[in-house]
Each structure stands twice: as C-alpha cells, then as structure tokens.
Amino acid sequence: MAAPKPATTAPATRPPSTHTHRHLRASRCFPSEKGSNSSTGESSSNPNPVVSLLSAVPDWADAIQERRIRDRRPLYDQSSWREHRSSRRHLRHFLSSLSSRVILSLVPPVFSFTAFAAAIATFNTLLPDYALTASPLPYQLTAPALALLLVFRTEASYARFDEGRKAWMRVLAGAADLAGLVMHHHRRHPHDNHEPVRRALLNYILAFPVALKCHIIRDSDYKEDLQGLLPEDDLNTVLQSKHRPRCIIEFISQSLQMLDFDDQKRNIMESKLSCFLEGIGACEQLIGIPIPLSYTRLTSRFLVLWHLTLPVILWDECKWIVVPATFISAASLFCIEEVGVLIEEPFPMLALDALCKQLHDGINDMMAMQDSVHSQLITKTNKAHGASGCPQNGWPGTKKEEAKID
C-alpha cells in the first residue's frame, strides 16, 4: 500500500505591515484620481441617459451663475445712483428677470416644485376619492418659523458682506496712507540716492491690493493683473511664492528698511503693514469659514418640505390654483434664500477691480499734484526772493525758509 503523499502546506503569507495597512486605509478615505477613474471608468464612459437628462438643467443654471459671478462689478457714480432710484426701476427690474442670475439659478427647484404641484392637482382631479388633502393648521403654525429662519439667514449673510467690505476699505486706506508717507518723505529729501527704491516701493504698495484681490477671488490671473505694476523679476518671485500677498508685504518691508526714515515715521509705516496683515487674515477667515452649515442645511430642508406639502394643504381651498401658488411661493422664498447664499461670499459681490484702479489713479494723481504744487510754490518763492531780500505776501525770503517748503 502506497504511503499517502504528504499534504502540501500553503506558503506562509506574511501579514501586511502596519505601513501598508495604513496606506490602504488612507486610500479608502482619500482615493487618488487615477484609482477613482479606473473604478468608475465604465460608468463615466457610459453615463446613464436619465441621470444626464435630469442633471442638464441644474448644470446649465450653475454654469450661468458661476459665469456671472466672475463678472467685474462697477463702482457707482451720480448717473448710476440716479438710475438706481428712478421711478421706472420696478418695470426695468421686472423686464430683466430672465437675465438675472439669481432667477436663472432657481429654475431647477422652482419648476420642479411647480411640476410636482401639477402632478398632485392631476391626481386629485382624476381620483377625487383618494385626493391628497390636509389641514392648513400646520402651515399656520410653521409659517413664522420659516420667516424668521430666512430673515436670520439673510441678516447673517449681509453681516459677512459688510465685514468683507470694511476689511477691504481698511486695506485700501492703509495703502493710500502708506503711499502718502513715502511721497511726503521724498519731498523733504528730494536729493537722496534712493529714488529707484522709492518708486519700486510705491509700485509694491499699489500691487498689494491687487494681489490680495487675486488671492481671495477664484480663477484670478495674477500675472495679468500684476503685469504693469511689478518688474519681471519681482513678478516671477511673487508668482513662485506660496502666499503672494505676504510676499509683496515682504518686498514693502525690506524696501522701507532701505530708505532713511526716522523712528517715529518708521513705526507709523510698520503699523500700516500690520493693517495689511489684518486685512489678509479677515479676508481669509471670511473665505474659509462660512455660516454654520447646519443652518444652511436646515433652511434648505425646511423650504423643500414646505413646498412639497403646499399643494396638499391648499387643494381644498384653491384647487388648480395650487400650481401658480406653488410657483409664486417657491420663486419668492427660494430667491430670498439664494440671495443670502450669494452674499455669504462677499468679495465676488464687491467692485474690487474698480477699487484697485481707483487707488492706482488716486496715487498717480496725488504724485502729479504734488509735483505741480511744489513747482508753483518754488516759482513764487524765487520771484519773491528776486524782487527783494525780504519776504513778501507771506512767501519765504531765505533759503532756510525755502527748504522748509521743500
């Protein structure tokens, strides 16, 4: 009898190392782009036509909204304010409804709830014995809660909008004050050897609000916006840095160290730099921390449940009027909520490009005005000094007094 063959033992499998286990677990939590594409390659290559059809309208509305958000806002002038308070504004706003990005972004929810109301009305008409009806008492009790929820949502969003506007105004005011101090120092020391540094410093000051604007607004082009303000080598340094506004602050700080300022004026200028840093912190906080998401989710869920049950509540009293009633209610309440969501991110709503250009034009105009006034005063001083050695009409008659004007 042949001896039985010895059982072949399977090779001992080595347990996965801790590093491999952690890597697999991290891969599940944060799948790579390649892995996600390979796992869903079949679904992405053959998308469900029903899902594509249902998502076509929301994708279209979102595309319009995102495209209009990137539009540059103008600053108001007198003619804009006159048109803004015109008695024909209501007709103008009503006729431009179809071009409003707020209204166009609400096409998916409003028409979905209107179609749902039409379906409920059709069902109740065809099957009156099984009609879906309910008492309006729950709506009477919850209507004040919905109103307060929308009011608090819009108030919180406007508070963020106002905070962003004030933070940006402080940055612009600090830039204007710092540029004024630099130009005033040049007038008191016109013959120093730091004129190139002073010119570069003014350009850095003008470039900081532009860099901050690009930092807080998505899809901004740093190179295009900073092209005329910074030389090529400085621009490359800024573009290579991870935090472009802080890099420009470093340019400003080191340029201030190269100029000959007294301690008092240097402390004032450094306080303006602290305003820049505070502005960066305020802007990044507004961008990174939204209104608590639970509040936004609660508002959205409340609105959805409200309009899903609205046709059932109104059927006994309104019959087919529930369809236009649902449309008007959804268009009104969702529009209020949409405005709150839009102004929650304040900076795309502000005319930041126009404000940066206004600062640039204001500083250039200030420099030209200083040159003009300084030349005019020197001319009058020389004429008065040439006519007689004594001062006339209050104009200085000595070189010492003329130096005070300089």
Automatic annotation (TrEMBL):
Keyword Cell membrane recorded: no
Transmembrane annotation, as ranges: 98-121, 141-161
Matches recorded under Pfam families: Bestrophin_2
Compartments, as annotated in UniProt: Membrane
Organism of this sequence: Eleusine coracana subsp. coracana
Protein name: Uncharacterized protein
GO MF, any single term: voltage-gated chloride channel activity
Key words of the record: Ion transport, Membrane, Transmembrane, Transmembrane helix, Transport
GO cellular component annotations of the record: membrane
